[in-house]
Structures are given as structure tokens and as C-alpha cells.
Design a protein that fits this description.
alpha+beta, two-stranded antiparallel ribbon, about 130 residues
């Protein structure tokens, strides 16, 4: 009698676990992103030139009408948002300060020939030019 109750309990637990695993997170899909970059570096001028292709696969059943692609435009220039943030964090004592020891006021002190920037020549999606 006890062994039959154990079998029923074990069978019930197995069925329950199978059900939970089969229906876990049915409303979530893992998207896929693949980057391909071709970059050349000029060690004399410290400049990078190149191209990047991003292939984004939407595995959800929903149609995406917008895709956001964040470009950190000119972050490494004096008075940029990143420069202001890193200088502001120099005076804080939080342990989450990411810029304090690494960047600090270094961006503000860059010489004209040291200032970095991004120059984007085109952005396309499925071969169609996009506004950016």
C-alpha cells in the first residue's frame, strides 16, 4: 500500500514538473543579434575606420516596427554628456561610480588632436536608408 502511494506521488510530481517545464515563460522569446565588424586602426593617428553589420533576428510572433540602435555619438569630447557625468561623479563617494577612477576629468583635458568622434556615413535596415 505504501509503495503504491509513493508511485502515485512520484508520478504526480513528474507530471507536475513536466507541465511546469513545458509551459514555462510561454510569452518570452530570445532574440538573436550578430555583429560583423571590419575595422582598421591607424597607429600613427590613433584613428579607427571601418564598417559594422548588425543582423537582428526577431524570434517573437510580434512584428517590430522600430529597432533602437544606440550610437554613443561623440562621447569622448570635452563637455559631452559622458564628460559631464564623469566629472560630476569625481565628487561622489558611491561604490557604484564607474567613471571616477577610470575617466574622471580626462576627457575635459584632451588636446584637440586627442579628441575622439564618430562619423556615421550611412545606416540602413534591410537595404533601406534610415534616419539617424
Amino acid at each position: 500500500m505504501i509503495s503504491m502511494i509513493r508511485r502515485i506521488i512520484i508520478t504526480g510530481v513528474i507530471v507536475l514538473l513536466y507541465h511546469v517545464m513545458a509551459t514555462a515563460q510561454p510569452d518570452r522569446w530570445q532574440q538573436r543579434v550578430r555583429y560583423t565588424m571590419n575595422v582598421e586602426m591607424n597607429v600613427t593617428t590613433n584613428r579607427f575606420t571601418g564598417s559594422q553589420t548588425l543582423a537582428y533576428t526577431n524570434n517573437s510572433p510580434d512584428t517590430l516596427y522600430k529597432v533602437f540602435y544606440h550610437l554613443y555619438w561623440n562621447a569622448f569630447q570635452p563637455n559631452s554628456m559622458m564628460d559631464q557625468l564623469s566629472r560630476a561623479q569625481m565628487n561622489t563617494s558611491t561604490s557604484l561610480n564607474l567613471f571616477k577612477d577610470k575617466v574622471g576629468d580626462r576627457i575635459q583635458r584632451l588636446q584637440p588632436n586627442e579628441i575622439g568622434y564618430q562619423k556615421i556615413s550611412k545606416l540602413t535596415m534591410n537595404g533601406v536608408a534610415q534616419k539617424y
